[in-house]
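Researcher: Sequence recovery benchmark, item below. Answer with residues only.
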């Protein structure tokens, strides 16, 4: 028996073996069918296309009409530091900085590249990084890549008392040392929010730098879709929260690809010189950058779509009536055991809903669940039917 077979057999026995499924989108959004299943259509509840932009044929047509066919690249075979820094990059980063009311933005090929690359680039020996226990795996990888002498610890999920105690016990920033707190504004597996008001109070007291991942909030929250940090600061101008590193992604609500860190010009300059995923990666093609810019410019126009997402959240709450209402478009239907999560996903697929069982290592052992994303293209009646089915799971 090979090592590979041994590991795969162990995963199979744990009901934790994953396989790639071939799925095809159906016009109109929200539905997919796997090859070999007689072309059956499903309501897709596993996509992060929160605003329903990925299947909008009209938007795609408008975008194609804007293209100057002589002036964009379908490929960009170089790194940005060589010949890959096309004008499309510069235009997108300038537009992002304006939209986010920030000094600068730096675009990379994925959220994973951003999260695994920023912290190793900006930290140095003597720094302390305090990260929420449930931050994304890409951030954990980033922490592990920090140089020796950078200390990092994790605090219990959203536990501001423990974070305060860790900050109080830490050396104050100074003598070149820096304390960085790392969290997400909207957590991708539990669908809950970071306590931004409490973070702002702790920041005023301890003066830490903040790394805020807004991957699942960007596009969906805020008056212009610019995320939860902007929404919080607009509502609390007397007690603002400052994020020195704010991450937004384009592969979710914007139905594109890539991601960016919103930061100062000084930080951007440092990242260009030290961030390995930027330095050693091939640049993105203009087509992706132009599509992102096209949707970013229209982000304020999508308020009706954001309102539809809020309507769907309300339907799920009113139907399931959980003790703690779901506050976001991410709905975890908890199962506990892997076997139970797989069974729930199978029952929902039988009823016409494409859902995915989420298991370790995506979530901690014993916390398997079916993770559902509510998107603007979903039919409210279908979401109500889904929620009624979920009540049967107990």
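Model:
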């Amino acid at each position: 028996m090979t090592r590979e077979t041994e590991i795969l057999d162990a995963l199979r026995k744990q009901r934790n073996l994953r396989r790639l499924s071939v799925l095809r989108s159906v016009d109109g959004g929200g539905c997919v069918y796997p090859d070999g299943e007689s072309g059956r259509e499903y309501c897709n509840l596993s996509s992060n296309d929160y605003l329903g932009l990925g299947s909008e044929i009209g938007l795609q047509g408008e975008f194609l009409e804007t293209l100057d066919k002589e002036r964009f690249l379908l490929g960009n075979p170089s790194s940005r530091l060589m010949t890959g820094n096309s004008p499309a990059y510069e235009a997108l980063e300038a537009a992002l900085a304006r939209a986010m009311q920030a000094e600068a933005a730096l675009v990379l090929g994925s959220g994973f590249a951003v999260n695994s690359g920023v912290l190793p680039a900006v930290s140095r020996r003597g720094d302390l990084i305090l990260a929420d226990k449930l931050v994304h795996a890409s951030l954990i990888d980033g922490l592990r890549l920090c140089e020796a002498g950078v200390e990092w610890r994790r605090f219990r999920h959203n536990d501001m008392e423990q974070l305060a105690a860790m900050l109080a016990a830490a050396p104050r920033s100074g003598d070149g040392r820096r304390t960085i707190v790392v969290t997400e504004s909207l957590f991708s597996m539990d669908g809950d929010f970071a306590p931004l008001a409490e973070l702002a109070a702790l920041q005023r007291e301890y003066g830490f730098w903040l790394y805020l991942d807004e991957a699942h909030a960007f596009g969906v929250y805020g008056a212009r879709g610019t995320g939860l940090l902007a929404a919080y600061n607009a509502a609390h101008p007397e007690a603002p929260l400052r994020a020195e590193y704010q991450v937004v992604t384009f592969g979710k609500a914007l139905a594109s690809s890539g991601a960016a860190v919103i930061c100062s010009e000084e930080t951007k300059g440092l990242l260009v010189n030290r961030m390995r995923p930027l330095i050693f990666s091939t640049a993105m093609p203009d087509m992706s950058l132009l599509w992102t810019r096209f949707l970013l410019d229209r982000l304020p126009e999508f308020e009706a779509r954001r309102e539809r997402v809020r309507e769907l959240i309300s339907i799920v709450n009113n139907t399931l009536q959980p003790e703690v209402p779901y506050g976001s478009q991410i709905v975890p239907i908890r199962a506990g055991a892997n076997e139970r999560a797989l069974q729930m996903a199978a029952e929902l697929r039988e009823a016409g809903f494409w859902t995915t069982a989420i298991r370790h290592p995506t979530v901690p052992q014993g916390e398997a669940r079916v993770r559902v994303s509510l998107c603007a293209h979903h039919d409210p009646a279908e979401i109500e039917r889904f929620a009624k089915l979920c009540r049967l799971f107990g």
